[in-house]
Amino acid sequence: xxxxxxxxxxxxxxxxxxxxxxxxxxxxxxxxxxxxxxxxxxxxxxxxxxxxxxxxxxxxxxxxxxxxxxxxxxxxxxxxxxxxxxxxxxxxxxxxxxxxxxxxxxxxxxxxxxxxxxxxxxxxxxxxxxxxxxxxxxxxxxxxxxxxxxxxxxxxxxxxxxxxxxxxxxxxxxxxxxxxxxxxxxxxxxxxxxxxxxxxxxxxxxxxxxxxxxxxxxxxxxxxxxxxxxxxxxxxxxxxxxxxxxxxxxxxxxxxxxxxxxxxxxxxxxxxxxxxxxxxxxxxxxxxxxxxxxxxxxxxxxxxxxxxxxxxxxxxxxxxxxxxxxxxxxxxxxxxxxxxxxxxxxxxxxxxxxxxxxxxxxxx
Length: 364
Ligand SMILES: C[S@@+](CC[C@H](N)C(=O)[O-])C[C@H]1O[C@@H](n2cnc3c(N)ncnc32)[C@H](O)[C@@H]1O
Description:
By secondary structure, the protein is α/β, with parallel strands linked by helices. It has 2 domains: 2-299, Vaccinia Virus protein VP39 (Rossmann fold, 3-Layer(aba) Sandwich), CATH 3.40.50; 305-362, Phenylalanyl-tRNA Synthetase, Chain B, domain 1. The chain is built from 14 helices and 15 strands. It has helices spanning 32-45, 61-68, 83-95, 110-116, 132-141, 155-158, 163-170, 180-197, 225-232, 268-278, 284-299, 307-312, 322-331, 352-362, and strands at residues 2-6, 9-13, 50-54, 73-79, 103-106, 120-125, 142-152, 201-211, 214-223, 235-240, 246-249, 256-261, 305-306, 336-339, 342-348. Helix 1 crosses helix 10, helix 4 (110-116) runs parallel beside helix 5 (132-141) and helix 8 (180-197) packs antiparallel against helix 9 (225-232). The longest helix has 18 residues, at 180-197. Residues 26-27, 31, 35, 55-59, 61-62, 80-82, 85, 109-111, 126-128 line the site of S-adenosylmethionine.
């Protein structure tokens, strides 16, 4: 076994040549970012002590970091179906000298556990691949005004490599170009919102983002028929044009994708606090991601343009630097900012004809 330090936690973890679900107990160092952002969001969202449930906990690194890194917890449930994981969780709690008087460790199928145990303020669904089997039980376990956190790593279906899989798993048509990750994330959001709506629950995005190989969504859960209906009324289709322009429309027709969530990807107040808290972690990628998401949510411009895509579509003849594009758009009094969804992408309220004019001036 290896000893690993992540954030303020030290844990034992099994050695493995390759990160996969075949590991004796799963631990992926790449998901440090996912865990750190979860801590930041929990701290930013809640202003009182919370009951938290980690039904798919593996080594226990996530709840251990929540405990050590300032999330105000009054009770913690940690669970995994793998008996070796449960043994390791107990060992890792001891290793970090954590008082376990308010910690319950179980070995159950997460779906059954979440049907039995309820009234959690925070439930963290972090599965292998698709989160689908766990959503309905998780909605039972999280209480009104609580936070549901969901990871999805099956990007191949959501981002368009396997459109038919996306159709049966997520009830939507994915797009396979530069917009694929924003569309994939919004398809995932809509699917989870639909499952909640049938239980008269509205899921309000607090932060939904894409990074590396995963999508992650934090939703506030509200028990309200009217709010659930308002959410559903914001599910729309993405229409994509050959010049790379796009619109959100209500009917399916040629070149349409989705349906998908057309609303905000986060909550401005929570994200403001999150950006401040991210300063405590020396991770520039996390600060950048949260700052860009704050900008996204503040200006609320779904989808974006992309200099590579504009070049491929023949809309521009040379590819300008992304910073100069943003500056030029702003000089022309448009909103413009970078996006987490593409390194060559920019979000703007300018229309394609203005973009074309401004970029052609920039490139002379
Ligand atoms: C991706 S890992 C979780 C990683 C962990 N949350 C972290 O941050 O390191 C998924 C975990 O879910 C567990 N698991 C899979 N299906 C389960 C089920 N039905 N009930 C409970 N645990 C399950 C696996 O044993 C595995 O440890």
